[in-house]
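Section 3.1 - Work completed
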Amino acid sequence: MRTGAAILLAGVLCTPAALGADDLLTFPSPLSNCYERASAAPPPPPPEPDPLLQRMLRYAQVAVKHRVQGLASYYSSFFDGRKTANGEIFRNAQYSAAHLTLPLGTWVEVKARATGRKLRLRVNDRGPYAKKFCLDLSQAAARFLGVDVAPDRHVEVRIIALPGEEPLPENVDLEQVEAQMMASAATPGS
């Protein structure tokens, strides 16, 4: 009987409060719950964010500040051989684009609404200066997309890399990634 009372008394006297160490032993709540309740392990850390989703989210934030859909125009032959805004020599036979506000060197994927064709190219010049257009394409790019002859010249522009970055791989379905972004934004608690 004395042994049981001694163990009970020792348990009461050896608590952190009895030793005056209540504030010395503090743990973050998930960890303290693990130790106080003697559960098997602390909760797992939150999953790492998907790098592709993070990159696309950054591109979406940039795209909000710029006009990324509208009508496309294309360069006349007059500009072939002249310097672009970033100092390169413009060639109408190569794929390139001009945008008024996107950073020079930005890679974009342009999709023509009339034909459904997509093309990846780099913004290397400024323009178009006519308000009704959002993008100036080289003649080769306009011909590939079909906007040089299509009655509907509407295009959608998606950023696939900012200056200094490698463009997203071609096998990435940008529409599917955007749908994932929208779903994760709509899910509460994410």
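Second construct:
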Amino acid sequence: MISHAGRSASTVGLLGDTSGRDYSVKLHLFNSFAESELRQAIAGLGLRPGMRVLDAGCGTGEALAWLLGEVEPNGTVVGVDLSAAHVAAARRARSPTIRVMQADLLEMPLAAGSFDVIWCANVINHLHDPRLGVQRLATLLVPEGRLALSQSSFLPDMYFAWDSRLERLTNEAVRAYYRDRYRLNERDLAGARSLVGLLRRAGLHRVRARTYLIERTAPLDAAAENYLLEGIFRGTWQERLRPYLSTEDYAELSRLCDPKDSQFALRRPDFHFLQSFSVVVGES
């Protein structure tokens, strides 16, 4: 979504982002899966008709229409993303009143004081310098404008309600994989956890937070099953976790993630999934 703070869009970001990076499939799957909670979070922003809104790191653009629905008939929405593939997807879905552009979050060709509200979801964790990112975004706000930073999974996700040990080992394996792949330590990966502190250190006021719970139980609808199977089981875990788990634990995880197995997690009657989505808002 967003590249290294303060450098050109071709620079590799904290989690490997460049203008050529493409994970549009996973973004679309997540937005379809969590649409109800995401729209609830957007409805809680207090948007009004006529407002000017920026979606900073808009991804595949599903939220653009949701934001526009809150500020119509005479409001405007702008979406910005670093990835060319994400921008192309967002442009295909946009309405004539939505503008989508490709740019680095820290080098956006937008005038100071252009927006009443900025929505920035699952983006700040991609920056080498989250505080600088927040400061840059804050300059785009009108006086008393609002910046809303949101992030998934501040609380540990629950995938296997019946096996907390395997769940813990899987989450630890994911963190180890990211540390090794991007040469990061635990503190590097934890920078975005303090959204409240980021907004306050950037000089924003009246900072408040709210966490939404994304909860799904069996039987799953198609959007939930597609996201968990394709976006998580196959797109995030799969072979990349093999080196970080014992042979026995990896075999068990593989069985739970295999639609052909009788113990496939998403078809078990006791499947219960939890994920948090936190929104922190500050005013300029």
